[in-house]
Design goal:
Keywords: ATP-binding, Ligase, Nucleotide-binding, Protein biosynthesis, Transferase. It holds the Pfam family Amidase. GO terms for molecular function: ATP binding; glutaminyl-tRNA synthase (glutamine-hydrolyzing) activity; transferase activity. Strands 1-3-2-4-6-5-10-11-9-7-8 form an eleven-stranded mixed sheet, sandwiched between helices. β10 and β11 form a beta hairpin. It has a single domain, classed as Alpha-Beta Complex (Amidase signature (AS) enzymes), CATH 3.90.1300. Helices cover 37% and strands 12% of the residues. With 506 residues, it is of the alpha/beta class. It contains 16 helices and eleven strands. It is globular and about 65 Å long. Bound molecules: glutamine. The site of glutamine (GLN) has 13 residues, from loops.
């Protein structure tokens, strides 16, 4: 292998082979990524770089590789969404209220990645407390999507941004941008209403939100506890399968983590889908849906059919209530989870005379606008007078949404195919500043999956007329992530992979 760029071009599976064959060392692989990160600071994907830690972990990997004791992710350099607590490394959820917070503990998911030999490159930017669809609510500023519209002048003078740079999606915008720009081999992410799948769709990467309970939530900053799930964002389906195997598993510190064996997901990548039935839900065909999205969907159906799947039309009648119900349930849980940030135990403290003054000043200064909006909506819908009218109704809708899926699965459907997002990536500052609902509409195809606790994967499937990636979503039965990998692999083989040119490199 020659030159740093060649090493960052490798997938996790390819890097694993190269390390085993001693074509290069973990030190060389990590150094290549550290150099790439340094040249890509204009993208703002990392909020903290940890090169010393990375090189020390790579040295340990090289020792284990030399002694023949390599682990499943030995020497693979990863980026970690800043929502995961990392021991001794600042973890802020990209909020000022956690400014300077250095956890004395490691999240279960990340500790499993390190147990398996992975190397930490740093912490990745995200929307504040994972609330957003564009990474624009981060206290560290927006992330720039490595993809540009055809003919765009963004980054014409390398190292600067002219014209409208695009958002990478959110909330896991740093994770998706870093994977797409080859600033890590893979990244951790979280998904409460679409935050793994929508940024994966906007950046031509693969993102899977596993079944609720598949990965432990312990040590991940909580947004909406009944919806939050961790998962990987990766370059391709195989890499996502490799990462999820290490991230998943039961955990006695999370009572909602499920005690069921973690399969070797790579074995699911057979290249065919014979015997599987794929449901196409008519309610996802929105009025005024972009013809390109409809065409992409039809293409996905054709690919799965060619590979042996049976395609059936299905109905998920309560889909239209999912988004409004999500924007009641998620803020309700958020308002409760975020009550702990009061200036006493974590991060920021503003002096305010008495204790109430201190709480008020700390929370007013520490939380950004979108987070304050969610806390206000959440406390409103949980208040005595409105609890039944909003919160209880939303919970009932949630049950009905889950029942829609249950009925489809009971009728023999193995997976549901839909578009992942209603559009390709939009410009920074282009959406949601006047009306937050404009931004919330981005989640229209993804929130149902969290409401029902099901696994969902986003697979890049093509480019639109602007030259930007578009993705399809597959939704599976509980704990049937293998089916999603199997179908996703078929789509990936047909569609190919999508990598943006490195215009940001000075
Ligand atoms: N965009 C959605 C929201 O803002 C989902 C976020 C997420 O999945 N963390 O709530």
């Amino acid at each position: 292998m020659s030159g740093a760029n060649d090493l960052t071009a490798l997938t996790i599976a390819e890097a694993r082979e190269g390390l085993a064959a001693k074509s290069f060392t973990a030190h060389e692989l990590t150094s290549a990524y550290l150099a790439a990160i340094e040249k890509a600071r204009v993208l703002n994907a990392y909020v903290i770089e940890t090169p010393e830690k990375a090189l020390a972990m790579a040295a340990e990997s090289d020792r284990r590789l030399a002694s023949g004791n390599a682990r499943p992710l030995e020497g693979i350099p990863l980026g970690i969404k800043d929502l995961f607590c990392t021991e001794g490394v600042r973890s802020t959820a990209c909020s000022n209220i956690l400014g300077g917070f250095i956890p004395p503990y490691e999240s279960t998911v990340t500790s499993q990645l390190w147990r398996d030999g992975a190397v930490m490159l740093g912490k990745l930017n995200c929307d504040e407390f994972a609330m957003g669809s564009s990474n624009e609510t981060s206290a560290f500023g927006p992330v720039v999507n490595p993809w540009r519209r055809t003919g765009s002048n963004v980054g014409t003078n390398a190292g600067t941004l002219e014209g409208t740079a695009l958002v990478p999606g959110g909330s896991s915008g740093g994770s998706a941008a870093a994977v797409a720009a080859r600033l890590c081999a893979g990244a951790t992410a979280t998904d409460t209403g679409g935050s793994i799948r929508q940024p994966a769709a906007f950046t031509g990467t693969v993102g899977i939100k596993p079944t609720y309970g598949r990965c432990s939530r312990w040590g991940i900053v909580a947004f909406a506890s009944s919806l939050d799930q961790a998962g990987p964002i990766a370059r391709d389906v195989r890499d996502a399968a490799i990462m999820l195997r290490s991230m998943a598993g039961n955990d006695e510190r999370d009572s909602t983590a499920v005690d069921t064996p973690v399969p070797d997901y790579e074995k699911a990548l057979s290249g065919e889908v014979r015997g599987l039935t794929i449901g196409i839900p008519k309610e996802y065909r929105l009025d005024g849906m972009a013809p390109e999205i409809e065409a992409l969907w039809q293409q996905g159906i054709a690919w799965l059919k060619e590979a042996g799947a049976k395609i059936v039309d299905i109905s998920l009648p309560h889909t239209k209530y999912a988004l409004p119900a999500y924007y009641i349930v998620a803020p309700a849980e958020a308002s409760s989870n975020l009550a702990r940030y009061d200036g006493v135990r974590y991060g920021l403290r503003e002096q305010g005379g008495d204790i109430t003054g201190m709480y008020e000043k700390t929370r007013a200064r520490g939380f950004g606008k979108e987070v304050r909006r969610r806390i206000m909506i959440g406390t409103y819908v949980l208040s005595a007078g409105y609890y039944d009218a909003y919160y209880v109704k939303a919970q009932k809708i949630r049950t009905l949404i889950k029942r829609d899926f249950d009925l489809a699965f009971a009728a023999g459907v193995d997976a549901v195919l839909t578009p992942a997002t209603p559009s390709s990536a939009f410009g920074i500052g282009e959406k949601g500043s006047a009306d937050p609902v404009e931004m919330y509409l981005n989640d229209i195809f993804t929130v149902t999956v969290n409401m029902a606790g099901l696994p969902g994967i986003a697979i890049p499937a093509g480019l639109d007329a602007k030259g930007l990636p578009l993705a399809l979503q597959l939704i599976g039965r509980p704990f049937a992530e293998e089916t999603l990998f199997r179908c996703g692999d078929v789509i990936e083989r047909a569609a190919g992979r999508f990598t943006p040119p490195a215009w940001w490199t000075p």
